[in-house]
Amino acid sequence: MAHTDRLISHLPSLYRPQAGDAGILTDLLGQWGAELDNISDQMTQVMQAHWHGTADRAIYNPYFNRARQQQKLPPLSANSPLLEERRLLNEFPFICDLARLGALLELPVWREPPQLRENVESYRARLQKMFLIYRNGLGTLAALRAMVEASLPLAMGVPVVHRHRPFAIEEYAPLGLTEQAAIARGAPLDAVGPLMRWELHNQGLQASAPTAYIEGVTPVAGEYAATERPALELMGAPGQPSVSLAYHQSLAPGDVLRLAPVPMGFLATGNDLLQAQGAAASSVASTLASTLANTRADSGWQALAEFTGTSITHLAQTRDHTLWAVVDNAGNSELWRYKGANWLRVQSGFAFANITLLRALDFELFIGDANGLHIIHCLPEVEDDYTQQTSPWFNSAVYDMLLDDGLLWFATEQGVFTATPNAATASATPLQSPTYCIAIHAQRSLYFGGALGVVHLHKGYNRWTHLIAESASDLDPAWQPFNSAAPATSYVPPVSTIASTADGTLWLGTAQGLARFFAARSSASGLVYSPRLQAFPDLMPGRVTTVASDPSGLVWFGGENGLLRFDGRDFLEYLEAEDIWQSLGAADAIYPDDVDPAPRERWRFNTTLLEPAWEQFDSTNRSWNQPDTPVRSNGGREVNALLWCHSLRADLGSWNGANFVPGADSSVPLTEFSVRVKRSATEIVNGGIPALPMLPAGRSSWRYLSQEVPPLQVPVETPWWSTEGRLVPNGSAAITPYPGRFRLGGPDPVANLPAGLFDDVVYAYLPAARVRFSWPELQPFSLLVRLTAVEKDEVIHPAVPDRVWQGMQKVKPAGARLMLAVENDIVRGLDV
Predict the structure, then answer these.
(1) Closest to 430 (Cα-Cα) out of 493, 372, 483
(2) How many alpha carbons lie under 13 Å from residue 429 in its C-beta half-sphere?
(3) Rounded Cα distance, 642 and 628, in Å
(4) Which helix (H) or strand (E) holds 87?
């Protein structure tokens, strides 16, 4: 009611002007009412200016509304059903009162550069995120993620699904390189020869891909030998095979051979086998930055000619670096192997009935098919002459397996079984229904996906529970005790593949699409969590065949609808034609239109319906509905399996002080290298893809070798060790000498040699090279924020990383170390 009408209503009826009356009283009341209306409007604007949710909003702006009146357009509503009207509100440019609120937190409007200038709604969104960060507390991973998101510019003129730049936060990031030279246990200390060993100490949390440098030395008679066919070996535990990388040529004095890891990825599809390869450092300035940031191969996928038009269903790699693939040949499964040169089908006599499992454990390959479990030892005495052993444990399909603390777990058609490696039989568990996959979390929880959905075993309590997820109320437990005799109805579809990530999220691949079970944060306070099941029929409908985490922590999904990955907030889809990852928006939102997202809410798979289907909970009406969610992903090749490994980039160059400098045309072809594996002290066989062995976490023993040249020249006196560490035994010798070292003097040299002391020791082979290693260590309290490009070869304006880096410093946990990267280039936090 206008103030004029309110004033008139207070007058006695005898003096109250009627509609259409003209006179002094009517004019006076009209003037007073208009003044009061003006004061009320100004007071409303003052109140709106003091609240970040309404300040400078277009629908309250008098100039915006007056302009629409002059255009004879009606006022706009924030909830307008018309996309163009809501888009117009989002693009309102004039900031005034909102900037005063931002000044209280020292958050000025971004005006420069012009292409990144903020409008009202993008600035408001940034302020709202900042308010939540300070409300919920600093120094946490969630605060860091929120700060990075708030520090990135919003693209308000594009569809909402592309408004936010994707990024990932990698915990336990390698924020520096550890360097160590190979020190001999006797003079000369800086050079090593065949059979000489040293110890490397990787203090990181996980195994790391090292870079090695081998420098040729000048031969000196009786003191130094030529650097011929050098090899670096990671020694296995007693009784276990050792793995080395050998160079087939010799190094001239002063020449340095750098052996750098190159990340590789393989993608098994319904029609091809694709390969992607990352890059290794190629210059002095980029060595450290590229080594730390380039941890995955995720683009540039190329189809291998050997498998054009062929369906590949499984991939695995054994410790000898051999890559294994299962080919579906018109319903019959074939096993193929790759050692870096060419693909070869393993014995055609091997008959497999529809392979359902391919798993590598050290040097053994476990194969499950419809008839049970088969084992292939991957280090045959004669190269590629493999033998197959069929396990007596099972006579039906085996789908998955897991080695946990010395115990093997199997998911089979008959349920879940356990066995020790040398047991005669496998033991049954309470879960005796078809089970297709296994995942482990924090070494204490096992999750089994199968016909019953998801069943959980807490090992510490030996407690089995069943994921039901029927109710939308937190008062009804999603996990209920598992009744093996009469399992309860689960509102989760049969699960064919499962993965558990570090934050406790369960990713579920099903024939009905992708789903996740996780602890969702309350959107109101951000401090309350509730368990929630969510499905993604708009992103990945149909059969999901693989879910896997890569070394940097991203979660990848493959299935009938192509290849997706999750960075902790957003889903991204690989567009093969453009060779780029495109954002599909946040996982916790759905996108009914191009302007405003909606919360994804809770989901369940209702198996009690005549046609089982996904249902979404409507929190407004408190009911379950079958949503109409069109598929937003573009689709792609059908993806069956993923695998990440390492290859090699080798360069010849020299040392410039403490830096390696590649020479002109320095690249060395991989054909000049081979992986060598000692299957026993007397036998050496060739391995697979040329690469240095991974450096284990903790302490490991390495040694320098020189690859043998056939035929092997064996001396008259044995036992004897070759330059490659092969033992030529003497059948009559009671004791095999320690490889390569002999002590001079003393009645009993072996007994009188104190542990670790090598005075007066003579090596059987002369020092022949200088060797040094460098490797990234994955450390706690280290975080790497990686911004994702939204276009091919995008160049991000320098202001963006500057703002993100400044924001990261505000919420950095005490003692944590941070770095910022744009794709594979570290741009802040590292002196390169």
Answers:
(1) 483
(2) 24
(3) 31
(4) helix 83-90
Residue 250 falls in which region: left (phi positive, over 0), alpha (psi -120 to 50) or beta: beta
For the beta carbon of residue 272, count every other beta carbon within 10 angstroms. Answer: 21
Task: Say if residues 369 and 351 touch (Cβ distance below 8 Å).
Answer: no
Distance CA 416, CA 403 (A): 13
Residue 170: enclosing H or E segment and its boundaries? strand 167-171
Q: What is the number of other CB atoms lying within 10 angstroms of the CB of residue 276?
A: 18
Q: What distance in Å separates the CA atoms of residue 602 and residue 476, rounded to the nearest whole number?
A: 14
Q: State pTM to two decimals.
A: 0.87
- Pairing mode, if any, of strands 761-763 and 197-202? unpaired
Q: What is each CA distance from 77 to 43, 378, 588, in whole angstroms?
A: 21, 69, 26
Q: With contact defined as beta carbons under 8 Å apart, do 328 and 287 qualify? A: no
Q: Torsions phi, psi of 67, nearest 5? A: -60, -40
The strand pair at 782-787 and 817-822 is best described as parallel
With the C-alpha atoms ordered 222, 226, 229, 235, is the resulting torsion angle positive or negative? positive
Taking residue 50's Cβ as centre, other Cβ atoms within 10 Å add up to 12
Cβ–Cβ under 8 Å, residues 563 and 493: no
Beta-carbon contacts of residue 272 (< 8 Å; ≥ 6 apart): 303, 304, 307, 308, 309, 310, 312, 637
180 exposure class (CB count in 10 Å sphere: 0-12, 13-18, 19+)? middle
For strand 256-269 and strand 273-277, is the pairing parallel, antiparallel, or unpaired?
Answer: antiparallel
Q: From CA 565, how far away is CA 548, in angstroms rounded? A: 9
| The residue to which tokens 């889903």 are assigned | 571
- Residues with Cβ within 8 Å of 771's Cβ and at least 6 positions away in sequence, in order, are 181, 182, 192, 212, 213, 214, 215, 232, 704
Kindly report the backbone phi and psi dihedral angles of residue 223, in degrees, each rounded to the nearest multiple of 5, phi listed first: -125, -50
CB 507 within 8 A of CB 540: no
**Six-digit token pair at 374?**
């088969």
DSSP codes joined into one string, 23-77:
SHHHHHHHHHHHHHHHHHHHHHHHHHHTSTTTTT-GGG-HHHHHHHHHTT-PPP-
Averaged pLDDT, groups of 10, the chain, 832 residues long:
70 71 75 77 73 76 80 77 74 82 82 84 85 84 92 87 92 86 86 93 92 96 94 92 96 95 93 86 49 74 90 96 92 89 84 91 94 93 89 94 95 96 92 96 92 95 95 92 94 96 94 95 72 95 93 91 94 91 94 89 94 93 92 91 94 88 89 95 94 96 94 84 89 65 47 48 79 91 91 89 93 88 85 49
- Cα(768)–Cα(191) distance, integer angstroms: 7
Report the helix count and the strand count for the chain, using DSSP H and E: 9, 55
CA distance 470 to 489: 9
Q: Give residue 692's Cα distance to chain centre.
A: 22
